[in-house]
Amino acid sequence: MKNFKQLMLLCGLSLASNPFSHAQMPVDNATSLATPHEMLVEQVQQFVTQVVSNSADPLAADPNKRTTVDVFPIDKRVRIPQCPTGYEFSLTDNALTNSYATVKVECDATQWYLFVNAKIEQLQRVVVTAEMLSPDSILTQQNLRFADIKTNSLRHSIFVDINHLVGARVKYRVRPGQPITPNMVCFVCKGDLITLSAETEGLRISTKGIAQQDGNIGDTIQVMNSRSEKIVLAKVRAVDTAVVGI
Questions:
Q1: How far is CA 157 from each of CA 74, 147, 185, rounded to the nearest angstrom?
Q2: In this structure, are residues 168 and 138 in contact, taking their beta carbons and an 8 Å threshold?
Q3: SAF domain location, by residue (predicted)?
Q4: Residue 8: its pLDDT value, please?
Q5: How many C-beta atoms surround the C-beta of residue 175 within 10 A?
Q6: Per-residue pLDDT tens over the stretch 27-64
Q7: Euclidean distance between CA atoms 171 and 213, whole angstroms
């Protein structure tokens, strides 16, 4: 019980003035028609959502990420008595680090309590394929879309902006709905005839070159100058474009 109360204090919620106690919850027409079990599930969901929100670092907020809370139904055979002092809610100390959390619901007035399970998922908005793509397919606004993917299922770097991928080519067959990762695409692909530029203050020289490696924007790759047939190192700047430093 000590651990439960400590977490409540850390989250800025006291058990004595719990904003999600039964007595303080607003009741609308839809809620008034719900069963006690459904009403308690709704209050648990609001409580966990509020705790997650309070624990988030506002300086590290990411508009492409969100958290969902799904409370498991309470067995209808469980008796839920009325609580004149209002229900109190608390979480275990490590609840927010796990995918599943156990919420303790209790009523001091009647010495009644119940444990309710909830699933907490972190979702990331990422760019995925909108259709089956064959090798060498060019990515466009039409064959890409956004999807919310569980963060614990993302094993590699991802893209969150479709515009950053338009023009790139996929290296192999990709199924619909698959998140795009850097190793799946190339903005300059091995064997491509590309524009090879050398830039300095007020001067820009361009020629053609043949890419010796795959590369994404920002990658440094080997390119063979088509005129001199010398191999140089160049940084990929855009689709079919790389720049040599002077």
A1: 39, 15, 12
A2: yes
A3: 124-186
A4: 42
A5: 10
A6: 344 445 689 999 999 999 999 988 888 877 666 678 88
A7: 12
Amino acid identity of 72?
A: F
32-35-40 Cα angle (round to 5): 95
Q: Residue 151 phi/psi, 5° resolution?
A: -65, -30
> What is the maximal distance between C-alpha atoms in the chain?
89
Q: Which amino acid, residue 246?
A: I
Distance CA 110, CA 112 (A): 5
Number of Cβ within 10 Å of residue 89's Cβ equals: 26
Spatial distance between the Cα atoms of 118 and 73, rounded to a whole number of angstroms: 9
Enumerate domains of the chain plus CATH numbers. Answer: 2-122 (no CATH), 124-186 (3.90.1210.10), 193-245 (2.30.30.760)
Per residue, the 3-state secondary structure of 162-211, as one string, reads: HHHCCCCEECCCECCCCECCHHHEECECCCCEEEEEEEECCEEEEEEEEE
Mean pLDDT of all residues in 95-104: 80
Which amino acid, residue 233? L
Task: Give the end-to-end CA distance of the chain in Å, rounded to a whole number.
Answer: 67
